[in-house]
Structure to design on (222 residues):
């Protein structure tokens, strides 16, 4: 087991992957986690299989930015086999943040009751501004992008969603909200590497976020 300096990139990249994974698992239009800092990290080399990172780190909460959450996680990057999607396990150490059911339900009802399906572009706009009513829409894009990032990450990548190019709501006969996003996902390892991605998202406050379909694979660096 090799001790890693908490500020070194391998530990930060693995923790950022966990942050995106957590967002997809438990994020909502009113709860999105941001990477804070790594406080402890070790690297385990598993011969013939891959590398496993053991991490302790903090997360900030984007909507209620005064909240800091402590987290413990393990990330296994397989180096062999057909499936090279990282395996992620995590545990919140203490409070995971405010319950957002009330805000999420209000947002859900507002989308369901719209006379015309939602359409928007450039979130944020060219000046960095996000209208308040579109902030939950952007948060859902971040949550859904967490799935794509998880599926395409490796030890050499560090992805985050940067921008919503456009979004439109798809009318449905059931209780789910469907949003069709075009987003840009940024790989911080290569500062110019911006990956366009179309993501079709299903959301319901009771069942969470599911990625129905996505197109345009991210570049996996080996």
């Amino acid at each position: 087991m090799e001790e890693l300096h908490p500020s070194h990139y391998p530990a930060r990249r693995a923790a950022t992957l966990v942050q995106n994974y957590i967002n997809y698992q438990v994020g909502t239009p009113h709860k999105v986690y941001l990477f804070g800092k790594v406080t402890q990290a070790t690297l385990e080399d598993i011969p013939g299989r891959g590398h496993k990172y053991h991490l302790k780190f903090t997360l900030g909460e984007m909507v209620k930015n005064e909240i800091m959450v402590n987290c413990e996680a393990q990330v296994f990057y397989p180096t062999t086999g057909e499936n090279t999607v990282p395996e992620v396990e995590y545990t919140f150490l203490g409070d995971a943040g405010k319950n957002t059911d009330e805000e999420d339900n209000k947002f859900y009802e507002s989308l369901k009751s719209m006379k015309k399906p939602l359409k928007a572009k450039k979130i944020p706009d060219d000046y960095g501004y996000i209208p308040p009513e579109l902030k939950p829409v952007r948060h859902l894009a971040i949550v859904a992008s967490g799935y794509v990032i998880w599926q395409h990450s490796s030890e050499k990548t560090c992805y985050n969603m940067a921008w919503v190019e456009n979004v439109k709501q798809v009318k449905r006969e059931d209780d789910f909200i469907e949003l069709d996003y075009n987003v840009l996902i940024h790989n911080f390892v290569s500062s110019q590497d911006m990956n366009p991605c179309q993501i079709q998202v299903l959301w319901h406050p009771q069942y969470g976020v599911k990625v129905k379909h996505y197109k345009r694979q991210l570049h996996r660096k080996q």
Summary: The first helix runs from residue 9 to 26. The chain has one domain: 2-215. The domain at 2-215 is CATH 3.10.450.10 (Nuclear Transport Factor 2; Chain: A,).
